Amino acid sequence: MSKDTPAGTRPPGQPPGWHNRAPDWYRDGRDHVWHPYTQMQDASPPLPVVSTEGVHMTLADGRRLIDGIGSWWTACHGYNHPHIVAAMEKQLAAMPHVMFGGLAHEPGYRLASRLAGLLPGDLNHVFFADSGSVSVEIALKMALQYWRNKGREGRRRILSFSNGYHGDTWGAMAVTDPGQGMHGPFAELFGEPLIVDMPTAPGSLQSFDRLLASEASSLAAIIVEPLVQGAGGMKFHRPEILRAIAGTARRHEVLLIADEIFTGFGRTGHMFACEGAEIVPDIMCLGKGLTGGVISLAATVARDHIYEAFLSDDPARALMHGPTYMANPLACAAAAASLDLFGDGARLDQARSIESGLRAGLEPCRGLDHVTDVRAMGAIGVVELARLDHLDWLRDALVDQGVWLRPFGNIVYLTPALTIGAEDLATLTGAVCRVMAEWDRRGR
Q1: Residue 95 Cα distances to 102, 215, 336, 348, angstroms
Q2: Could you tell me if residue 27 is inside a domain?
Q3: Among 26, 79, 165, 307, which one carries the catalytic annotation?
Q4: What is the mean pLDDT of each run of 10 residues along the chain (444 residues)?
Q5: Rounded to an integer, what distance in angstroms lies between the CA atom of residue 254 and that of residue 215?
Q6: What's the rounded Cα separation, in Å, for the pair 408 and 45?
Q7: Is 173 left (phi over 0), alpha (psi -120 to 50) or beta?
Q8: How many CB atoms lie within 10 A of CB 21?
Q9: CA distance to 33, 175, 235, 387, 394, per residue, from 410 (Å)
Q10: Structural domain of residue 125, as residue ranges?
């Protein structure tokens, strides 16, 4: 909210008299906080949240909303899960943090061992980071230095895909499709990135193979979001497409980086999306759901041959990277507790059940004039439109229905916690269908 907003103006999504009931911290801080992906001059005020529980958020004015996007796809077990909270409280009392340079601690070592045991193939070597974007930066550095360490310094390019999104840090932006809009202003600073269409159309795999054949000598790696391209529009592709990409990369000796920051930890109905295609990438990036959505932690995991290329008597061949809070013990304890909750496979069964609920619940949207597609995979549901504008009205209308969603681009999407019950899921999908029908009726 700008400083010029009249005191009596009702912000979108807020009931009459809201200003009189806004908490002091909100009124005092609103002119000093810079929110993400937001034009602050005319942005709708954010909703003040005071507590969370399960799949619900409670606002300062007492309203309770179902969180339909799991806090940007992180809260896979819902909010405030007692097992994760207890593990964090125990770790907090013992040692909330210690540097990982030259030191070791049990939470980090045990978590690395567990991840290596869970991940497919010989993805055995875990390099911790403090955010998903940084894990991508590390993966890119690993891939580039891998070839340099092997005496093939000409392999310096990274191939990525249209509609791909890999983060907001510098290297991650360089391999993200600039056409998405978020990073477009920086596109000219990255030279000529090699961004190609996902080879999903008939004959396109042959073209992709020819491209790699011609570019292999300069390519270090391909980076892909397996099965679902998240922030690029929740674009799905079939497991056989991912298998073909992996096979083509292997045939031309190009490394494959799987960005599982969004797709990992049950989101697609598999523990890791790569398992759905039965592939083992050379490097995998993990984040978001790694800790169950309670604290930031990420990891870049490498296969044996990648790790071994960095072993040498020459210090210059080491991986020179080290986030200050890497392997934060408190976050590692949360991640271990989150993995406990995946232990019996019930979470993955829940994700597959959610897929059925999303398909059935969102299907009425398919007949609306402006809807171009309705799709679901695991705990991901999407209503795609020919266009999507009047976002303030749309978000308000959804809040009035008791749900929190954050549509973007030309999609309204749902990525709820894997623990969401059938009743809350039906409330979410019903709210989307009603609001989209009204949006359609008004000719939005």
Answers
A1: 17, 49, 16, 32
A2: no
A3: 165
A4: 35 52 91 93 93 98 97 98 98 98 98 98 98 98 98 95 95 89 71 88 92 96 98 97 98 98 98 98 98 98 98 97 97 98 96 98 96 98 93 94 96 98 98 95 77
A5: 10
A6: 17
A7: alpha
A8: 13
A9: 28, 22, 12, 5, 12
A10: 82-341
pLDDT for the residue 20: 58
**216 and 250 in contact (C-beta within 8 Å)?**
no
- Mapping DSSP to helix (H, G, I), strand (E, B) and coil, where does residue 417 land? coil
Note the pLDDT of residue 15: 55
User: Amino acid identity of 151?
Assistant: G
Same domain, yes or no: 196 and 127: yes
396 included as an active-site residue? no
Do residue 199 and residue 321 come from a single domain? yes
Task: State the pLDDT at residue 161.
Answer: 97
Distance CA 106, CA 111 (A): 8
* 282, 288, 307, 424: the active-site residue: 288
Closest Cα partner for 265 from 77, 40, 24, 36?
A: 77
3-state class of 122 per DSSP? coil
- b/e sequence 263-274, b meaning 16+ C-beta within 10 Å: bbbbbbbbbbbb
Choosing from 28, 31, 37, 90, which is the catalytic residue? 37
Active-site hit among 67, 259, 282, 424: 259
> Is 259 among the residues known to form the active site?
yes
Same domain for 167 and 297, yes or no, is yes
CB 76 within 8 A of CB 292: yes
Question: pTM for this one?
Answer: 0.94
